[in-house]
Amino acid sequence: MARVHRANLHNLNRLRMLCELRRLKTMSEVAQVFLMTHSAVSQQLSQLEKEVGYKLLEKDGRGVRLNDRGEILADYAGKILALADEAQAALKDRRDVTGVLKVATFQSALVGLVPDTLRVLDSEYPDLHLECVQCDVSDGIAELLSHRVDIVIGEELPFAPTIDSPSIHRLDLYREPMVLAAPAHGRWRFPGSFEQLAASRFLLNPAGTIAGHWERNFCLAQGFVPTVVVESPDPLVQLNLVRQGVGVALLPSLVLGSVEGLDNVDIIPLPGNPQRVLFTAVRIGREDHPAIHALRRALHAARP
Questions:
Q1: What integer is the mean pLDDT of 269-295?
Q2: Residue 198 near residue 223, CB atoms below 8 Å
Q3: What are the boundaries of the signal sequence (predicted)?
């Protein structure tokens, strides 16, 4: 690409659009990320082609895709954008822990981990503020790569595919065991063995979710297909229904510390001690930003 030196590569937004088109596949989705019209994104990418002196896109049915030169430039654009983030982090004074961090996280971390994390930040970094949004981990990673959030607090369930990418810096926070929560009394109390749970009623995550898939596979490994009375992605709803004697649930340990009054619930370790991993993820180049360091330290201090 002898003429790439002619490109105005200071226009990081156009490079981001190119990378997002490769990741998202359609111009319409790129337009949603940048809060622009389809035609405005198309114009920006056309301008990028003029700047580098090469065609970067080609027709693909009704849409477009990156051609070979587009793929090459997208590879370099990813490195340039990471370096831009790294430069911004390096320019920050190490003591300058201020501003707003946008955090994507999942429900049980929002309830069981974020309150103590905020208390640590209020004490040690009073000028750093969090804006948290609840979403599942895959959506959170997409928001991170689209520059809509600064950090993801994520979970990785047992035997699930590893959540990682060359574009993110992942730091594991800790591991915690998954457990069975059962009513202490009544018809659906723990029968004494996991094989006998075949006759129990279950409160599980929806079947199409990663958590729901793992829960059903766990039951299959014990020799039965679970009878599901309630499907809910909310572990607090599940735990509350267990307390009321509705059925049993497979839960992460973090949820237990956020609920008072578990006298009516028995917590039973699972065979094989399956564990989920809690982690944080940021875009490559942002991992040394003082505010990211501060939040990661606060999360470590707040862990159960």
A1: 93
A2: yes
A3: none
